[in-house]
Amino acid sequence: MPGRSQITRRQVLAGASAAGVLVVFGGDKALARGAPRSPQLASDPFTLGVASGDPLHNGVVLWTRLAPEPLTADGGLAGIGNLEVGWAVARDEGMSQVVRSGRAVAPADLAHSVHVDVRGLEPGREYWYRFTAGDWASPVARTRTAPAPDARLDGMAFAYSTCQKWEEGFYNAYAHMADEDLDLVVFLGDYTYEYGIDPGTGGVRGVQLPPEYADETVTLDQFRLRHALYKTDADLQRAHARFPWVATWDDHEVDNDYTGDIPEDGTPPEVFRLRRIAGYQAFYEHLPVRAPALPDRQGQSKLYRTIPWGPLASFIVIDSRQYRSDHPMGDGEHPYGPASFDPAQTVLGAQQERWLRKQFGTSQAQWNVLANQVLFSALAHEPGPNPRYWQDSWDGYPVARRRLIDDMVGSGVRNPFVITGDWHSTFVNDVHPDFRDPASPVVATEILAPAVTSNGDGPVYGPYYGPMIQFNPHIKFFEGDRKGYVRCAVGRDHLRADLRYVERVGARGAPVETFASFVVEDGRPGAVPA
Ligand code: FE
Ligand code: CA
Questions:
Q1: Which ligand has the nearest atom to the CA of 424?
Q2: Within a domain: residue 149?
């Protein structure tokens, strides 16, 4: 973006007023983008809320983004250089006992997003935090730190969610999740969707949008606009402001069913790489994740990581998109062919596979939660010796899946529990080394979360996938139509998962119910009805 460093105050004011936002800086000298300024903003810059994430036993990431006009490119700060914000962490909701505070830069290059990696906090306790910019203060939000590695801990609670297509539903799931008593929220992918949205209706939301929303997201500006739109939702903001989140992505943060550098359409990989970098950067700019998630000069983002929760649980977060080899049999549903069994096929890539093996081998945690994106267990689409499988799930990569299972079992890692998103359906699965042999041992449990909104209300996948379940005896539960999230209570004796469904997503406000509950006993993989 040539020229931005020579922008004069007059140009700043002209650009700002064009966006309907008055920004005034002291002095007439040129605004250097490297020198952060304390802004005077005529309207609230905290329209996207605040968030925290990736808690450690001594710290947590705090996030916000300054965007006085969230549905315009640059958030209403077009032509404005780096800005300075204040932040504070307190022991009380009234923010009277501040324990950490400071100033942080909201870089123009990162859409004036702010990531503060706060350290020096006490383990296993609640904190409240707030940002300030100019005369504006953000809402006060709650977070918490992870327990100390040697903490004595009887339990913890988390929820997980996935697939929150804005134009297909209201975030009633988050309205209820925000009222839960949770330590943590894990997000498993499809935070945003790339498809164009009808700007005349905003889908079921029934609001008008700027015309830029009509197109599929390809450029950084388009991805930023999309994230900002999602983040304007009050229920999503509440869920972020209530708990620390541990977020990973799946495909739709960039492009449906992409693998590595291979997009859904025929765009050449070197061109698609630019789109992927833009999607990854916008994801970083809008989520409370640490700096390695920001794409580097090679366009690589490191999103896989482990979040320990004392000796009780470990959240092992994987990235099954960035390093994946292309679908061996092509996109969609296909039976296996020779390419399916090529050991070079990979979902995680060699480096992440080694890292995961090490996590399994060194984890001391009692429960090891694998934060996974796409269906891990098999779903044969028909009976017989060579059924069709959905090639974008782990079913497309049976050799890579078997390697992971062998690493998991071989390591002796305790109580592996796979949490999964993507399918817009709820599944409860026994994980077998060989899904074709129901007599082979159950080595782990997998539970897929329903979508928060994607596909909306009404029959969706139930009629199509429901009849297949009988060919898959390791699938203990399936629901293909309802929306919501999964709530988990983790204890020393067992883990309990509640399937929380909202009545509808087509209108704001709907009751939630626990539709079914499953329990996994310590040392005994496989979920049973509670
Ligand atoms: Fe999805
Ligand atoms: Ca997906």
A1: 1
A2: no
